[in-house]
Design goal:
Layout: H1 2-20, E1 24-26, H2 31-48, H3 61-89, E2 93-95, H4 98-118
Antiparallel strand pairs: 1-2
Helix pairs in contact: 1-2, 1-4, 2-3, 3-4
Amino acid sequence: MEKRRRVLGTFLGVTLATVLLPGISPILDSPPWEVVLAGAVFLIVNQLIYSYPSNIRTAPPVLLLILGVVGVIQDTLIWLLVSWLGSDMEYGLHVDGFLAALLGGVIVRATVLVLLALGPQEPAPQSP
């Protein structure tokens, strides 16, 4: 269930960042497919480098802060990767600069963390 919320949060965050930020724009005139491509890159990299707390409601605030900062940096670098891949393929999303990538990273990470906090939590494993 948590994985579904991460996937939904990632795609929702990429879509929100594309719509809200003027520094992130589609290269061609088919934004839905370009957002799906960017979301797929986010999902692949976020599956390889997992930086989410195991249970967001019971995690200590310091851990949330550290993982949040690491996650924003990771998502900022992914936005720059998406822009670089888009310019090479002439398809995808264009990110104007580091500030747009940073704001996009904040939006994506915040969206995922909010969706993880709102849904039902997995029960903690019981020790025998």
